[in-house]
Design brief:
The structure is a single chain. The protein contains 6 helices and 3 strands; from the N terminus they run H-H-E-H-H-E-E-H-H. By secondary structure, it is mainly α. It has 2 domains: about 1-35; about 35-150, Winged helix-like DNA-binding domain superfamily/Winged helix DNA-binding domain (Arc Repressor Mutant, subunit A). Strands 1-3-2 form a 3-stranded antiparallel beta sheet. The longest helix has 29 residues, at about 5-35.
Length: about 150
């Protein structure tokens, strides 16, 4: 049986509480205040497509979106179908593999995201100003390590 250090246990619970509180606040901030016209899963997919295309990588395959979201391809397909009906995204034949389909944002989808993206960038810009450059770099590095640890 593993021995528990009370100081480590307290820190463990403090981290858990901090993450839980941060998750709630971020969820409220971005999904409720920033882009309430979309469901969180829809916004997540659209923002991922926007980021992907801004890197010049074009659209994404449904399987890649599902892997990113850690859900099944059929779950993603349902969300994509709803976004397609709203004309926020469209499906295209993959130029590298004509059997595959890629999902891309439409101009309408980009227009819907523009104010949400600007609000998010402004909030994080404010965070950088609040923390300062050095602490922001440290936080960014720690968050990358967290993502790798939990990934």
């Amino acid at each position: 049986m593993q021995n528990h250090n009370p100081d480590t246990d307290n820190l463990t619970h403090r981290l858990m509480d901090s993450f839980s509180g941060l998750h709630k606040r971020l969820h409220h901030e971005f999904y409720t205040n920033v882009c309430s016209s979309l469901k969180p899963s829809q916004l997540m997919i659209m923002l991922r497509l926007l980021r992907h295309s801004s890197r010049g990588e074009g659209g994404m395959r449904v399987s890649d979106i599902a892997a990113f979201m850690d859900v099944t391809s059929s779950a993603v397909t349902q969300i994509i179908t709803s976004l397609e009906k709203s004309e926020f995204i469209e499906r295209e034949i993959d130029p590298d593999d004509r059997r595959a389909v890629r999902v891309v944002l439409t101009a309408k989808g980009r227009d819907v995201l523009k104010p949400a993206k600007e609000k998010m960038e402004n909030r994080f810009r404010g965070l950088v100003e609040e923390l300062g450059e050095e602490d922001s770099r440290t936080l960014s590095g720690l968050l990358i390590r967290l993502e790798e640890y939990f990934g």
